């Protein structure tokens, strides 16, 4: 299992350059780049050629761009903007040899109708993601749909997200399996069947404070192994599915933003490895 760092973990405390430096120093294999802000800031004083040169000369490599946000059930005008943003992400992926783009479903407050029936949500997701799949194919880029485990998101369980991906049935469209998102709206392990194995592209590891289902938020995330998520059960399930690609640590804890970012990056890896080793998931 490779180890990745998601920039959300130091979103308010470090630049992309700092994250790369500290992740390289502490032995991470991959980084998930926040294309929506930290990459934009980086490109104010650097180029994609600079970023490509860094990856070419260091161990750490790009895992994904995070993220194409709120793509479904939008107005026609908004959807057109989303498509253009995705095309830009594809060019970035080509330039820096990044294989994945994470995509995040819409919260209801940005959708065209507000509260929307599941059937309409799923139909919109299938239509838009199929189009994105067509666009991504020549680039060799894969799309990782991340369901969001909060009540206000339109795709908030593993089962719903997999239903969408299954309907699309494209080799380059799969899922982000995030332990926080899974827990947030009570996704069920029985829905993570052998059939889903090939569609789990990226695994996000994290933990959360002991709040009721439907009341957890990103700011309640904590170091892996320091909360109430049954990480043993998640890792056992992934092992059953023969998933051994990458564990990417993603936290949004305000207290962690007040810490030295290098210490956060170091501790994030240490706590992730402690969990993996505790439950017999070896690092490759």
TrEMBL record:
Isomerase recorded as keyword: yes
Recorded GO MF terms: isomerase activity
Superkingdom as given in the UniProt entry: Bacteria
A Pfam entry, by short name: AP_endonuc_2
InterPro entries, per the entry: IolE/XylAMocC-like (IPR050312), Xyl_isomerase-like_sf (IPR036237), Xyl_isomerase-like_TIM-brl (IPR013022)
Ranges for domain Xylose isomerase-like TIM barrel: 21-269
SUPFAM superfamilies linked to this entry: Xylose isomerase-like
Sorted UniProt keywords: Isomerase
Protein name: Isomerase
Organism field: Halalkalibacter okhensis
């Amino acid at each position: 299992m490779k180890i990745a760092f998601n920039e959300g973990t130091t979103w308010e405390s470090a630049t992309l350059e700092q994250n790369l430096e500290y992740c390289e120093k502490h032995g991470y294999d991959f980084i998930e780049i926040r294309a929506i802000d930290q990459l934009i800031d980086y490109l104010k004083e650097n180029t994609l050629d600079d970023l490509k040169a860094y990856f070419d000369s260091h161990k750490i490599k790009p895992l994904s761009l995070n993220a194409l946000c709120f793509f479904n059930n939008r107005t026609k005008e908004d959807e057109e903007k989303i498509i253009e943003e995705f095309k830009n992400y594809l060019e970035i992926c080509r330039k820096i040899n990044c294989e994945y783009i994470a995509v995040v479903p819409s919260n209801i407050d940005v959708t065209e109708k507000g509260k929307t029936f599941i059937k309409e949500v799923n139909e919109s997701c299938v239509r838009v993601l199929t189009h994105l799949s067509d666009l991504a194919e020549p680039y060799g880029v894969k799309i990782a749909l991340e369901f969001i485990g909060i009540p206000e998101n339109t795709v908030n369980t593993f089962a719903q997200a997999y239903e969408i991906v299954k309907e699309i049935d494209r080799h380059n469209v799969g899922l982000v399996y995030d332990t926080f998102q899974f827990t947030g709206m009570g996704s069920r392990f029985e829905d993570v069947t052998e059939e889903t194995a090939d569609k789990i592209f990226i695994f996000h590891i994290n933990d959360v404070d002991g709040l009721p289902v439907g009341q957890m938020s990103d700011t309640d995330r904590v170091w892996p192994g320091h909360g109430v998520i049954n990480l043993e059960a998640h890792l056992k399930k992934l092992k059953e599915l023969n998933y051994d690609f990458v564990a990417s640590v993603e936290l949004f804890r305000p207290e962690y933003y007040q810490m030295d970012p290098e210490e956060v990056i170091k501790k994030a890896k240490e706590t992730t490895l402690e969990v993996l080793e505790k439950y017999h998931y070896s690092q490759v």
